[in-house]
Amino acid sequence: xxxxxxxxxxxxxxxxxxxxxxxxxxxxxxxxxxxxxxxxxxxxxxxxxxxxxxxxxxxxxxxxxxxxxxxxxxxxxxxxxxxxxxxxxxxxxxxxxxxxxxxxx
Length: 105
Fold this sequence. Notes:
By secondary structure, this protein is an all-alpha fold. The chain contains four helices and no strands. It has helices at about 10-15, 20-35, 35-60, 70-100. Helix 2 runs antiparallel to helix 3 (about 35-60). The longest helix is centred in the last third of the chain and has 27 residues, at about 70-100. It is flat. The mean pLDDT is about 95.
């Protein structure tokens, strides 16, 4: 969903704001597996912010942002790039950046 925010297509249209949706899913997933007060404050704050921003987005008048036209090829790019980014994060980046492996060996 993070990648879908940059490429107009059916995925972006269906989720309305894919970056906020990605933030909500990310925060919720981290809240489910982490239970310390610091984790609840950090990830809970992100979740509350994303929910409130999505609510306020519904009430704002949309502005036209120039960009590439929506196409099915963009959806393919989003899925391939998103899966590649996810794989890199799970296998290497999460442990290298934060010291917490996603996959326990």
